[in-house]
Design a protein that fits this description.
This protein has 434 residues and is of the alpha/beta class. 46% of the residues lie in helices and 13% in strands.
Length: 434
């Protein structure tokens, strides 16, 4: 049996540091739990310190010895002789957090090895469906999240002092986000920024897939960042036709008929060459789970934007009810964005409520399934075309992108043009770049 990665000396340094400075135990607990220690004797000693802490008792060699004796565990840790070694070589207290992180690193590696062993056993079991085995890989990827503590507590005074330093250094200007290709929308959102979740909602026929594709292609070709587009409604071929039409300005019906002029053929050939070199991946799948998205995105650390078209077509995880299932999915998409430093753009259906109102412009409450979708979103965008409800000829080809929520800026409704034949929205006017 292979030896699991561990560092007995570092584990002992963590324990010795907590005994020397008991006040530091609470900080170590934000990184480590008892099961993170590889050696049983170290787990028992750490558990004893945690019990003493819970009882508000002093933490030192004598009280730890008494606790272990009372539970009949003193011999299992090596007796008084081993405890005495804790007092002989004291670690550098200032590096206690570093020591704790090393122990955590080794613990996570051990769990990954254990998980890989289980996965290997499943893989050779021909009674298991390959898809189910593959889905288990996401649990291994999720273990990486254990390398970061779930919370980091600081006093308000410390945070305020850090904020003042950042203000003085001029470091609070937000990082420029990726352009969406719509300058007025960029002015409101600051572009697509890392760690943020954007919900793009709309009633059927409003153009949410079209708008998402327009943004995705702009970011892949002109911003030159890696984009992945998960589609459960349209095939990669159908999406490619829409992209070709939008980028070339050649209506879809002409593309489908194949009756292009010679200069249009040349234009298409150049466009396809550009698309072939663009960092844009399409994943068309009839069944998509949040586990699959997480596993695939974590295996591609260079991804910058992930589009999901659309939320309600995903296979939800098991939960007590449908709303709770979508709450879990929404939360995990947001967590993925923060963990991977990317933007998640999740398309969503709306309820039929806008159809029942005199003003059909959608509002936040129109999002279907769960209030958590609205809550987790940093921005909520609605493409809206009034011409769908009003026969006024002046409205033909006009649209707006309603910013119904913007956690980091102002709301608004930038006007855009809509060219349905070419499957694209276009900026109505140019403004200075954000």
């Amino acid at each position: 049996m292979r030896v699991r990665p561990h560092s007995p000396e570092t584990e002992q340094a963590v324990l010795a540091g907590c005994l020397a400075e008991p006040a530091l135990l609470s900080k170590v607990q934000r990184i480590l739990c008892c099961q993170d220690f590889y050696l049983e004797k170290h787990r028992l000693i750490f558990a004893a310190m945690e019990r003493l802490q819970g009882e508000a008792s002093p933490i030192d060699l004598r009280t730890v010895q008494a606790d272990l004796e009372g539970r009949g565990q003193l011999d299992r840790v090596g007796g008084v002789a081993f405890l005495a070694t804790m007092d002989m070589e004291l670690p550098d207290i200032s590096r206690l957090k570093d020591y704790a992180c090393i122990v955590k690193d080794r613990a996570v590696r051990c769990r990954i090895l254990d998980g890989s062993d289980r996965l290997q056993a499943l893989a050779v079991d021909c009674g298991q469906e390959p898809r189910k085995v593959a889905d288990q890989t996401s649990s291994l990827a999720a273990l990486a999240a254990d390398l970061s503590p779930s919370s980091h507590l600081v006093s308000l005074g410390e945070a305020a002092a850090d904020a003042l330093m950042e203000i003085e250094d001029g470091n609070l200007r937000p990082e420029a986000g990726l352009s969406t290709g719509f300058p007025e929308l960029d002015l409101l959102l600051g572009g697509f920024r890392k760690g943020r979740q954007v919900i793009l909602g709309g009633r059927p026929g409003m153009g949410k897939t079209t708008l998402a594709l327009n943004i995705a292609v702009h970011q892949a070709i002109r911003e030159e960042v890696a984009v992945r587009f998960y589609s459960m409604e349209m095939s990669a071929f159908e999406l490619a036709l829409k992209v070709i039409s939008a980028e070339s300005g050649i209506p879809l019906w002409i593309l489908e008929s194949g009756t292009m002029a010679e200069d249009q053929w040349e234009k298409l050939q150049k466009l396809v060459l550009a698309l072939q070199s663009a960092p844009f991946e399409v994943a068309d799948c009839s069944h998509l789970t949040i586990d699959q998205v997480e596993a695939e995105c974590r295996s591609e650390p260079g991804l910058r934007v992930v589009f999901i078209d659309y939320l309600q077509l995903m296979t939800p995880p098991r939960a007590e009810n449908r709303n709770l299932a979508w709450t879990v999915v929404s939360s995990r998409f947001k967590q993925l964005a923060r963990e991977m430093g990317l933007t998640t753009c999740v398309l969503s259906q709306l309820s039929r409520d806008p159809e029942k109102r005199q003003d059909q412009r959608p509002i936040l409450a129109d999002l279907r399934e769960s209030g958590a979708i609205e809550q987790d979103a940093d921005a909520v965008l609605y493409p809206f075309r009034e011409e769908e409800y009003n026969d006024d000829p002046a409205l033909k080809g006009t649209a707006e992108i309603i910013v119904a929520k913007n956690r980091h800026g102002q709301k608004g409704s930038p006007k855009v043009a809509f060219e349905g034949d070419c499957s694209r929205f276009q900026p109505e006017k140019k403004v200075a770049p954000f």
